[in-house]
Amino acid sequence: MRYTCEISERYQVDVLVVGGGPAGFSAAVAAARNGAKTLLIEQNSVLGGMATSGLVGPFMTCYDNDVTEQVVKGIFDELCLRTEARGGAIHPSKIRGMCGYNSYFLGSHEGVTPYQSEILATVMDEMVTEAGVQVLFGTRLADVRMDGERITHAIVLMKEGLAAIRAKCFIDCTGDADLAVRSGVPTWTGDRKTGVSQPASLFFEVGNVDREAYCAELEQRKDQLDNHMGNCYSWKVREAKANGDWDLDKNELGMYEQNIPGRWKVNTTRMSYVDATNTEQVSRAMMEGRRQVQEVLCFMRKYIPGCENVQLIQVAPSLGVRESRHIVGKYELTTDDVLHRKIFEDAICTFGYALDRHDSQGGGVTWTLVDRYYTIPYRSLLPENCSNLLVAGRCICGSSEAAASYRVMPACMATGQAAGTAAAIAVKQNVKPEEISVDLLRKTLVEQGAVIKEH
């Protein structure tokens, strides 16, 4: 079937950011603050992506592996501080040791940021508004119009119908490389060899937890808990499995305390072999996730101290996706780069989170700590085959194993800030993103709060 129609050009901007999650929020704020007329489109009705519509939290550590230095700052730290000032978060500098805020994990879980998703969303609204970003909610990317290897327009679906948005530079922050794919950029999904992505989750929030009773047994067993593997109440999960009360492919309970008494985010559901770019698979995963939420609640009420009267507050309306597409870019970030403190000449951010790879079967997690920190090169944000496109977030060019570290939200925000800054420079200089001065980009990022380690 062939379908044609006339599409009006509704907007002309310098920079179009597609996707308003952590990466897209940061990219849009950075581009606008650096002088670019910026439009941000988001398919949902809230900024924040996984942090808000996905209810994912806390922000994983923004510190190096030794917890001696905060290595993600800039727009990320501003967001944390402003949300904390509104009573909606605890700054990561205040979270140490094994505790309820990090689900009694230690490795790469010190320096996390507990937050309330609804307050975080409000602060994000304020920050994009102050920066001068125009935001369009309920707007989904449909296609692109190309002139050779250059995007001229994004074709989007709005409530009013199809529309065209002209921009000089585009930033893909969809998480799934949707804009990149439609622009002819080659990609791969999940592991290169198997095509399997890390399993998805569906977060939910609970209340009416007796914190003292819940934490008492964990405090007593603290010395027995593995510092680097998820095993919070794993002995209760084993008991429930033996009794036929647990059929989830997960070996522990992931409960993260918020800064409201009795309220926790829960990361325990698991749906394996889900291709997040396949509508039917995502739909099935959402329904299975909601089923699993009810099973976890029954388990908590029966087996977990302090949760006898736990109440369900809300279930995320968006699937928690850890991995989908990876773009083919100018440089593929590798596992060795992540583990062995690789310092790139074109580094645009620093990160120190472990390789946190969730197994597709067996309910476990493969956990490998990094050597303090590593850097991410600008080239990993530059795709092949498209001259005016930047990519930020979990779908940058990197191996599936490396992405097990940089997929988490502080790193996505750091790459987003870099992409937005680079796009603004490219527009101002009327050059391709790959032609800008990387020295100028790095200098601008550091002046605006980013941490870029040089040794």
Task: Explain what this protein looks like in three dimensions.
- The chain is 29% helix and 20% strand.
- The chain has two domains: 9-92 and 116-191 and 324-447, FAD/NAD(P)-binding domain, CATH 3.50.50; 204-315, no CATH class.
- Strand 1 (9-18), helix 1 (22-33) and strand 2 form a beta-alpha-beta unit.
- The chain has eleven helices and 17 strands.
- Strands 1, 2, 3, 4, 5, 6 and 17 form a seven-stranded mixed sheet that branches.
- The protein is globular, with a radius of gyration of 21 Å.
- It is α/β, with parallel strands linked by helices and 455 residues long.
- The longest helix has 25 residues, at 279-303.
- 55% of the residues are buried.
Explain the layout of strands and helices:
Blueprint: E1 9-18, H1 22-33, E2 38-42, H2 74-85, H3 117-131, E3 134-137, E4 140-147, E5 150-158, E6 161-172, H4 178-182, E7 187-189, E8 204-207, H5 211-220, H6 234-242, E9 255-257, E10 264-266, H7 279-303, E11 311-315, E12 325-327, H8 335-339, E13 347-351, E14 355-358, E15 365-368, E16 374-377, E17 389-391, H9 400-406, H10 409-429, H11 438-447
Parallel strand pairs: 1-2, 1-6, 2-3, 6-17
Antiparallel strand pairs: 4-5, 5-6, 7-12, 8-10, 8-11, 9-10, 13-16, 14-15
Helix pairs in contact: 1-3, 1-10, 2-3, 10-11
